[in-house]
Amino acid sequence: MNNIFKNLLSIGYSCNLKSNLHTSQLRFAWSKDNLPKRFLEYNKKIYPPQEIGEEPRPAFVCHQKTNIKYSPEKLWYIAVFIRGMTIDEALKQLSFVNKKGAGFVRDTILEAQNLAITEHNVEFKSNLWIAESFSGKGTVIKGVRRHARGRMGEVRYQYSHYFVRLEEGKPPKDYYNLNPLTPQQQLDKWLENMRERKIINSY
Q1: What pLDDT was estimated at residue 27?
Q2: InterPro entries annotated for this entry (predicted)?
């Protein structure tokens, strides 16, 4: 009996009982070719000299944080939340958001603020506002999760990118509606839409 047990152990060790099936997150070597590049190209754009009396062009800086281990759908809510805020107000509001993604967004804004001071000749670091803030889908790694009765299920490890553009100056009063209509204009527009209605199959 002991000899049989020893033989089974030797067979098991020779076959390497460790499973080759990955059930946890895989290690992935990030490639520079897979990272977004076009957004940072705006920092390298050179504008022609402005004419006398022309409205000054505000300075801006674009920055991104890539391959964040966070869902892009969840990160989108945090990105939209701070649009149109001053940089000090955005950092203050993010400190109260009890989400993991808020920390990534806050670090990215601080990095962009530092770039604006050191590389883009912005005089005051508080004289900036969030002109653009959005998230994008990053790399998705597919894994396997074991289920009952020998079945397998797919699990996805999502990564996301975060993009922000800081602009010099004061933010607009209404970020989403730069040309608000007066009550009379809203009424006239509604009446015009009502008069343009048409009954289908009528003369």
Answers
A1: 47
A2: Ribosomal_uL22, Ribosomal_uL22_bac/org-type, Ribosomal_uL22_sf
- All residue ranges of the chain with pLDDT < 70 are 1-33, 203
Tell me the three state secondary structure of residue 173: coil
Given this model, what pLDDT does residue 76 score? Answer: 97
Element (H, E) at 64: strand 60-68
- Write out pLDDT tens, residues 88-118: 999 999 999 999 999 999 999 999 999 999 9
Domains annotated on the chain, with CATH: 37-44+58-196 (3.90.470.10)
Q: Structure pTM?
A: 0.73
Q: Give the DSSP letter string of 90-159.
A: HHHHHTT--SHHHHHHHHHHHHHHHHHHHHS--S-TTSEEEEEEEEEEEEEEEEEEE-GGG-EEEEEEEE
Give the CA count within 13 Å in the CB-facing half-sphere of 73: 1
Total Cβ atoms within 10 A of residue 160: 25
Residues 65, 69, 72, 77: what is their CA dihedral angle, to the nearest 10 degrees?
A: -80
User: Rounded distance, CA 113 to CA 90, Å?
Assistant: 12
Pairing of strands 60-68, 128-146: unpaired
Across the chain, what does the average pLDDT equal? Answer: 86
Print burial letters for 41-66: b (CB count within 10 Å at least 16), e (below 16).
Answer: eeeeeeeeeeeeeeeeeebbbbbbbb
DSSP class of residue 11?
H
